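Archive record
______________

***
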Amino acid sequence: MSWMRRTIRDSPWTGLRIALKGVPDDVSILWRELITMCMGFEGRAMDSQLHHANFINAHLPTELNEPAQRLVAMLDPNFEELQGKLRQIMEEATALAAGVRAWMLLSKEGLPIASAVPQGLEEAEIAAMAASILGVADLAAERMEQGSLEEVLLTNERGMMLMKSAGEKAILVLAAGKALKTGLLVYAAKTACDRIAPLL
């Protein structure tokens, strides 16, 4: 669960700052922090041994907003299994485009789901920026009556980045070197997104 605490601590996706220093790996404590972050919930004191399900049933509103629902899903034991499937899909997709240097799958709100990025990069920061870029591009396409946005391609000095929606709930980001053909990168992204969308 340490990666989840790191994501919550570093992510600019939420305007709330939560001090997580010294927080133990107790799932119930982590749950309280998640709900506080995404819903502005005033956390109540609770026994550290209380199972998180009891806490949820006792204190959560009947309906959760969509970002909260996605965070809730990440605490499900099956989430690690889902991550494994996503990584397998990405390994196969990037094998089609050998020049892919890094990839990241994130929620539409900018919360990292799975990734393979070079050490030292701040995943939460990259995810939030990618979600913002895609959101602005989608709005621009709508305002100019160009229909639904399919993808955003950024070219730069060292290569290119492709951001593409993976269904209604996620965004795939691929970074590649200049040697890789644009069409091959687009094909790899589409292949991955078509397989990822039904899983989320």
Strands lie at 100-107, 112-116, 151-156, 159-166, 170-177. The CA atoms of residues 50 and 196 lie 35 Å apart. Residues 123-143 form the longest helix (21 residues).
